[in-house]
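Hey, I'm writing a tutorial for new members on how sequence and structure tokens pair up, and I'd like a real worked example in the thread rather than a made-up one. If someone can provide the structure for the chain below, I'll link this post from the tutorial.
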Amino acid sequence: MVYWWQFVPTKVRVGEKTLQMLDRLKKELGVKSHDEVIRRLTFERRKIPSSMFGSNPKLRSFSREDETEFHES
């Protein structure tokens, strides 16, 4: 899950064929963004476990209340 404070929009130029490949992979992987396609490909290529980034698939995502409580601390 991506939170608003983790995502800073940037522009990356890609060729038309690359964009078509990204669109196709986005559909095949069932993801919502090109960013997620690129991250998945990068993790696969580098064999980077997601655990290196503090994610734990057994934990639930933060709720708005959790985020509010965290920011009040």
